[in-house]
Amino acid sequence: MVPANGIAPLRPVARPTDEAEAQRKIANRLKRARGQLGGVIAALESGADCPATLTQLSAVSGAVNRAKHAVISSAMRECLTPADAGGTATGTPTIRELEKLFIKYA
Question: Which of 13, 28, 31, 85 has the maximal Cβ count within 10 Å?
Answer without folding.
Answer: 85
